[in-house]
Amino acid sequence: MDYMINIKAANTISDYKNIADIADVIWREHYIPIVGKPQIDYMLQKFQSASAIEKQVEDGFEYFTIYFEDTAVGYLSIKQEEKALFLSKIYVLSSHRGKKIGKAAMQFVENKAKTYQKERIRLTVNINNTNAIKAYEKLGFINVGPLVADIGNGFVMDDYQMVKEISS
């Protein structure tokens, strides 16, 4: 069955608020068991509030809302680097997983990387997020090692960096 998946640029405060609402649902459901509620409360405020998203957009990040039929069900964020396209965020509501939305979103990201003439896509993923790691590997990403980042307030992001080479 083919569903209508649309990915639209987010560039208004209203778009950012919508993404912040989606992030709140996804992050609390998915990450509290992995890193705990205090870190998620902190990260949502610091990185995924509408004002934080607005600031990231000013700093060169592009945000997109993912729609399934006419419902916003996820979002993604990318940033151009010298030779890579950094996939900062890609999230889909659990109620809409298994509908090829993530795959369509990754194809969108790959097309952006080609449009921007980047050699690779780079992303980071929590080392305990085993399902996401497996999904990225299935899509051709290679785990190039751990990356620990201090995000303030006594919290760290304990991630793997994954890279996928893009054929032009």
Automatic annotation (TrEMBL):
<dbReference type="GO" id="GO:0016747">
    <property type="term" value="F:acyltransferase activity, transferring groups other than amino-acyl groups"/>
</dbReference>
<feature type="domain" description="N-acetyltransferase">
    <location>
        <begin position="5"/>
        <end position="167"/>
    </location>
</feature>
<dbReference type="InterPro" id="IPR050276">
    <property type="entry name" value="MshD_Acetyltransferase"/>
</dbReference>
<dbReference type="InterPro" id="IPR016181">
    <property type="entry name" value="Acyl_CoA_acyltransferase"/>
</dbReference>
<keyword id="KW-0808">Transferase</keyword>
<dbReference type="InterPro" id="IPR000182">
    <property type="entry name" value="GNAT_dom"/>
</dbReference>
<protein>
    <submittedName>
        <fullName>Acetyltransferase (GNAT) domain-containing protein</fullName>
    </submittedName>
</protein>
<dbReference type="Pfam" id="PF00583">
    <property type="entry name" value="Acetyltransf_1"/>
</dbReference>
